[in-house]
């Protein structure tokens, strides 16, 4: 994840190679300090063909650590994966080919951010999406962090 660009990502984006996105965290006063507050990474508008196996991994890093000299993958934490398992072709009464579904992935990241040492005053985190399948249709509509 070295060499992060702080230029805003353009969505929707095709996920045909690893993509790095700098994501703004909710305002400090919204995050609160209660244990019931959870920061949730939301990858929305995920479009995939329902008859294709699709997988991508999600990694998170502190923006400050990412741009610091010498920081790199050793400071990165695995957050989770998105997986689409092909549906049976007879479910829709046809062959099912080319049918695009749209969904989202939600991952609780508060504990992960704590493990990374992300401070309350850090306004951004770096999210890296790494596709694990070749030649499949994957579009990402957006990436954000919400409080739940």
Strand content: 35-45%
- CATH topology description: Jelly Rolls
Number of separate helices: 3
User: What is the name of the CATH class?
Assistant: Mainly Beta
Q: What is the N-to-C succession of helices and strands?
A: EEHEEHEEHEEE
The 3D shape can be described as elongated
Spans with pLDDT under 50 lasting ≥5 residues? 1-6, 66-71
Rg calc = 17 Å
Q: For the report, how would you describe the main beta sheet?
A: 5 strands, antiparallel
Q: In total, how many domains does the architecture comprise?
A: 1
**Coarse structural class:** mainly beta
Fraction of helical residues: 10-25%
3D architecture notes:
- This protein has one domain: Jelly Rolls.
- It is 11% helix and 42% strand.
- The protein is built from three helices and nine strands; from the N terminus they run ββαββαββαβββ.
- Strands 1, 3, 6, 8 and 9 form a five-stranded antiparallel sheet that branches.
- The N terminus is likely disordered.
- Its EC number is 1.10.3.1.
- GO terms for molecular function: catechol oxidase activity.
- Pfam families: PPO1_KFDV (PF12143).
